[in-house]
Amino acid sequence: MLEKAKQKNVYKKVMCMRLGPEVLDIPDDTYDAVMMTGAVGDAHMNGSCFAEFIRIVKPGGYVVMDTIVKYINGSEYGGKSWDELIDDFLMAGRWVTLTRRKVENAFNSLDGMQYAFQVK
Ligand SMILES: C[S@@+](CC[C@H](N)C(=O)[O-])C[C@H]1O[C@@H](n2cnc3c(N)ncnc32)[C@H](O)[C@@H]1O
Question: Mean pLDDT for the chain?
Fold first, then answer.
């Protein structure tokens, strides 16, 4: 997939890294935005990704992501649910919500959730 991405000639850099509880080899405040789609689910990403998304996005930048509703329950991290983790960062003033909506029939007849946050 990285080879395919390179062929598009739109990315300055491609990296193969596992996003999760580990700190990525990316400096703080690097990107204007992070976009993640289709990467949450069984044995995929969980709520541990939020802290890293916020860390690598510049203040005022954006985190845009989605998930399938049925995967939310399996995406808890550190004893907290996906929604609790999102709300923790809201309460801590780390990001504000731009979009948080349910989308019927988002993928393969499954309902999804779409999110957009602005990093503070
Ligand atoms: C179902 S594919 C979706 C690929 C693409 N985003 C799309 O929408 O077509 C799930 C992707 O999530 C990636 N993924 C799962 N867990 C990950 C993790 N912890 N860190 C980074 N990528 C992960 C997988 O490598 C895979 O590319």
Answer: 95
Residue list, ligand 1 pocket, CB within 6 Å:
18-20, 37-39, 44-45
The residue whose CA has the least distance to atom 3 of ligand 1 is 38
The sign of the dihedral angle between the CA atoms of 2, 75, 33, 110 is positive
Mutation test residue for ligand 1: of 2, 44, 107, the one with most atoms within 8 Å of CB: 44
Domain boundaries of the chain, sorted by first residue? 28-119
Residue 46 has pLDDT above 90, yes or no: yes
The token pair that represents 47 in the structure block: 């709520």
28-119 CATH fold: Rossmann fold (3.40.50)
Burial profile 92-119: b = 16 or more Cβ within 10 angstroms, e = fewer: eebbeeeeeeeeeebeeeeebbebbbeb
Q: What is the pLDDT of residue 36?
A: 96
